[in-house]
Here is the input.
Amino acid sequence: MFDSISPAPPDAILGLTTAFKNDPNPHKINLGVGIYKDASGVTPVLNTVKEAEKRLLDDEQTKSYLPIDGNAAYAAACQRLIFGAGHEIVTGGRAVTAQSPGGTGALRVAGDFVARITPDATVWVSDPTWPNHPNIFQAAGLKVATYPYFDPASNGIDFDGMLAAMRTIPAGDVLLLHGCCHNPTGVDLAPAQWQTVAEVAAGRGLLPLLDFAYQGFADGLEEDATGVRTMAAHCPELFVASSYSKNFGLYNERVGALTLVAQNRQAAQAALSHVKRCIRVNYSNPPAHGAAIVRTVLGDPELRRRWESEVTAMRERINTMRHLFVETLNEKGVTRDFAFIARQRGMFSYSGLNPEQVKALRQRHGVYIVGSGRINVAGMTESNMEYLCEAIAEVLRD
Ligand SMILES: Cc1ncc(COP(=O)(O)O)c(C=O)c1O
Here is the structure.
């Protein structure tokens, strides 16, 4: 049976990493996969993570299974980070949280839950979105459709187009929104736009799903929660898929959480019972280590303070690179306007480079960019900036 199978296409983004590794060019630069790199081009283990791991190693008593929905202290810490301590949603028991293997795991559990409760619902994703989104929800058996989001003419949001599309979405359908640091465009809704989106979503009875994979990478941990909290203020029911891959640098530990907000404590608990059924038949219960790190850091005031400084350092480095990139392109005589890159947030931007230019950068200069033109700004450093901008200038001159 296996002899007759033709190979599935490689993952567009992770496949790029393999090609990068095999490239002998000593100057090669990887702006493809979405991982943070520091000024020396490495993806570091955060100091607070190391410290928490030492404590865990000393204190760990058992490797017994976690509950299906994971560790309760971790769930509480996630809720406080999303909504803020003392928020009515948290204190009133309207939120339930299941620990999950990464943000991807949280999205898939949300998809399975929706497929179980309302199998005819469609999941509406932004055009464009993270390429894994449609795959995840289709794998859960749901239909996926898009709403307009990015406007290439302004390198901003097609807000009128987005709202017009939202006004046609039937009640009960899922509206997927990026909490901050939109991947792949780097273009986020402004606070006033969140307000409007929340009012329209609530008015139409849509079910928002906030993908919250980059909290702390745009403007700050609290500031970046504005969108999620605005949606929660208007919509009585929603999901938040958190990931700690980026803001804790815990990529390979697979740590995230699905939070579901219901109208009251009883409804939240009933929903959680179905979330647990979805998890049980999928991965049974979550891996412990990554979430134990997050729980330890968030639960210790001194570690938390130090972690916030580490998140600030990552965010500020990315924003510094955004400005340096624009300046260096100018110095290289590039006349095309790239100033929008400095206005965008998070690790990603749509560079506007076309597939031919992306191919030329890779073949002639060893610069790896996703075919859509998405660049990972966190792959830029002060030492590779000259080479990178010279390569882009050369390709644009062609
Ligand atoms: C928009 C978005 N959502 C979710 C994820 C998933 O993160 P994780 O690695 O925690 O599964 C990513 C990771 O790249 C992402 O960019």
Observations:
- The chain has 15 helices and 13 strands.
- The pocket of pyridoxal-5'-phosphate is lined by residues 34, 102-104, 130, 178, 183, 211, 213, 243, 245, 256 (CB under 6 Å).
- The longest strand covers residues 95-100.
